[in-house]
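Data availability (excerpt). The following record was deposited with the supplementary files.
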Amino acid sequence: MMPFIAKTNQCNVTLRNHNQYLFDPSGNEQDIAEKIPATHVPTDEQPTDSVASIALHERKHILKHVLNQIACSDYADKELVARYMHHKYRRHCSAGTIKSAYTTIKLFLFYLEQDEAKPLREVSQQDIEAFVEAEQDRGIAIPSIRSRLMQLSAFFRFMVEEGIAVESVHIKKIRLRVPEFLPRAIEAESIKKILWVVTGTRNRAMILLLLRTGMRIGELLNTRIKDINLEEQKIMIYEARKTGIGRVVYFSEDARQALEKWLQERDTSQTFLFYNKGNSRLSYGAARIIFVKAVEKAGLADRGYSLHRLRHTFASELLNAGMRLECLQQLLGHTHIEMTRRYARLTDKSREEEYFRAINLIEQEGIDGHY
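Predicted structure:
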């Protein structure tokens, strides 16, 4: 199979791994989307200091970048794809959703071109099923394939509404069994070792806040000083990046103390709570390196610990302490309680205690015999 070529304004980028196919960050942002008829790129206004304005700026930036890539492509249906990207933008989809939708469509178009170029309006159910098999053969995880099917379903539904496609493509009929992985927490002793070796007030505050609030790393890195209420020990998440739903999270006394020390040292001119030299906001990559170095220094490099597992640890500890699932769901920002219930299957101490109480009774009193 030939390598996937992602065309940009400046150069052709060969992607040896299909998981790296999205955007060339060095691509020229000059607006060339007017090459595609009937499209309009929103003006790039300077955002004000608000979550909504920052999100709007990111949506505009991603849309421009996507339209530029479409304009530079040789897709037969580039105008249709561009219209769909505008449709996603008008529906107020997040920057991540727009980017993900384009990635899926680009992958699907690339697949269609392998044998013979087929217009999107001629795509059949068999083409969709063959695409799924091809993704499975490439080793793509089932949850990722299911997500791509959902995105393709939305795209073909748009085509039907526009009178472009027939309704013979029934993507929703394709059912993939998605394994329910249990979330894995970090053991208490390992947490102690990691916190013991963490250096720097900023790094300690970041790790403790993740551990005590259950925030997603992206949510914490987007936290600004004015989002924090130190006296009431809470942080306002006005719009979660993943779900678009706001919530309030709380932090413990040890996290408050670590946060206060960092607030005393940080540059007060910075907007975001955590920043790096030359950047107004600490990046995910930098945060990950901080955590990885701490894990290695603690002698735990072989454990496979990640930043996200601090969130799993938070949930597991609260459940073990007796918190109700409904409360934990709100703190974690889960849309469906079934997501939260996974932690109960893994860490419910009450169920563990009930088992050993019953089994001890069986052994001691000879119920149904002692083996």
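Summary of structural features: Residues 1-40, 43-48 have pLDDT under 50 and may be disordered.
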